[in-house]
Amino acid sequence: MIYMIIYIPVIVPATWILNRYGLRVSILIGAILNAVGAWLKCLSMEFSQPSSTAASAMGSSSFPILMIAQAICATGQTLLLGVPAQLAATWFGKSELALATSIGVFGNQVGCALGFGLPPLMVPSVDFSTPATFDSQFDSLKRGFRILFYGGAAIMTLDLLLVTAFFRKEPKIAPSRAQYKRILQRRGQLAGDHPTGDEVNSDSQGALFVLSFQSKKSVIKSHQKCQNWQNKATSTKSSLVSKASVSSGSTSATPIEGFLKNAFAFSFSSQGVNTGVYYEIGTLLSVILLEYFPTEQVAIGWVGFSMVIAGLIGSIVAGIVLKKTGLYRRVLIVFYFLSVVTMGAFTGSVFSYSIAFVFVTMILLGFFQSGFLPLGFEYAAEITYPVDEGLSSGILNTSAHIFGVILTLVATALEGKYGGLSANLFMLVSMALAAIPACEIDLLSLIFRLVPNFQASGNFRWTR
User: Fold this and answer.
1) What is the pLDDT confidence band of residue 212, given thresholds at 50, 70 and 90?
2) Membrane topology for this entry (predicted)?
3) Taking the model in full, what pTM does it have?
C-alpha cells in the first residue's frame, strides 16, 4: 500500500527527472534510494524486540524505521517504473521496441515473483496459540528476516555498483530518427537552447542522422544517396502534411491532443484497473485463499510465484505478437478481455477446493494480466507520439497506482465483512467496466465500415 500511495505524488518529479536528465540519472537515483531503503530495513530488524520484552527506545523505533525504509524504496521504484518504455526507445530500433519493452517489464516481474516465492521459504510461520514459546519463535523469525533483509540489501548494493560503473545514458549512435530528435532536443534544453520543431525536423538534421550511421569512407562514397534521401524525405513530409490537412483540417497538432483521444481513455482505464487488480491480488491473495485452503500457506505462496512467472512469459509473448502483427489496439484488447475471462475463472476456482485448479487459473491470469502491461505502454506511446515515452508510461503507472489504492481499500473492506468471494467479484466487475471504452471504439469502427459515408456526410469526427 505504501508503494502505491507514494507513487502518486512522486511521479511528477520522477517524470521530470527522466525527461530532463535522461535514463542514467533517473536509474542511478532509483538504485541509490533502493539501496538506502534496503539497509534501513536491516537496521529496523536489528532493533526489533518481542512484545513480551519491556519497551525500549530501540524497540519502539523499529516499526517507524521500517515504514521510512519502505517509503524510500517506494520513491526509488517510482523513478524506475517508467524506465522500460524509455529505455527501449533510447537503445533499440523501431522493429525491436515491443520486445525490448516486454523484457524491461519482465525484469520488474522477476522481483515480484521472488517476493512471493522466497519469503515463505526463509521466514518461518509463527504459532500465536502458544505464547509460552513465543520468545524462541521470535528468535527463529528474526533469523529468517535477517537472511531475507541482508540478502536483499546486498543485491541492491551490487545493482547500484553495476549501474554506476557500466550504465550509459544513451548509445553513441541513435537507433532511430525519433530518438535522434529527442537527443537534439534534450541537449538543447540542457544548454539553455530550445530548438524549434522545424529545426529538429529539418532535412539537414535528417541527413546528419543518416551520416551518423556511416563511416567516414562510406559517407564520401554515398553523398549522392544522402541527397536522394533528403529529396525523398521532403516529398514524404509534404505528403504526410497534406493527408493530415485533409483528415483533421489542420497541419499541426499539439502533443497534449494525444492524451485527449478516446483510444487513450481506454488505455488509461484498462491499464489502471488491470494493474490495480494485479496489485490487489498480490496484496490479498494469501488472505483470500487461506479462507478456502487454511492449511496451504506454502502452496499459496507458490501460487503467487507461479502467477508472476507466467506473467514473465506473457510479457515476452505479447511483445513477440505485437512485433509480428503491428496491431497495437487489437492485441491490447484481446489480452485485456482474456484477463477478464481468467479473472472470472479464478473467482470460481476457489469453490472447487482444489489447489491444483487454483494454480491453473492463476497461471492463466498472470499470463494475460502481465502480458497486457508492455502492450499498454507501447500502445500509449504510439497514440501520444511525439510525446516522450517516459511521460505516457508515467501517466499509465499513475493510473495503475490510483486504481490500485482504491481497489485494494475497497476489496479489503469487502473481504473483512463479507469474505473473499465479494472481493473477487468486485475485482471482476471493475475489470469488466474498464473495458467499456474499448467496446465503444469497436462499435463505432463497425458503424464506419457498414456505413462508409457516415463520417463524410456530417461534421462528426472520431479520433482513434
Assistant:
1) very low
2) Multi-pass membrane protein
3) 0.58
- Does pLDDT of 189 surpass 70? no
Name the residue among 438, 435, 366, 430 with its Cα closest to residue 105. 366
CA gap 187, 181 in Å, rounded: 10
Question: For residue 359, which of 309, 312, 319, 302 has the smallest C-alpha distance?
Answer: 302
Residue 112 Cα distances to 72, 116, 160, 185, 449, angstroms: 18, 6, 19, 36, 43
| Residue 5 placed within a domain | no
Residue 242 confidence (pLDDT): 46
Given a cut of 90, whether residue 172 has pLDDT beyond it is no
Q: How far apart are CA 211 and CA 209, in angstroms?
A: 5
Residue 450 falls inside a structural domain: yes
* CATH code, domain with 376: 1.20.1250.20
84 within 8 A of 95, measured Cβ to Cβ: no
Q: Residue 338 is part of which domain span?
A: 260-464
Mean pLDDT of 313-323: 81
pLDDT for position 33? 93
Number of domains in the chain: 1
DSSP string, 403-448: HHHHHHHHHHHHHHHH-HHHHHHHHHHHHHHHTHHHHHHHHHHHHH
Q: In the predicted model, what is the mean pLDDT of the chain?
A: 73
Cα–Cα nearest to 361, from 371, 372, 349, 369? 349
User: Which grid coordinates are listed for 431?
Assistant: 475489470
Which grid coordinates belong to 434? Answer: 474498464
Contacts of 183 (CB under 8 A, 6+ apart): 170, 174
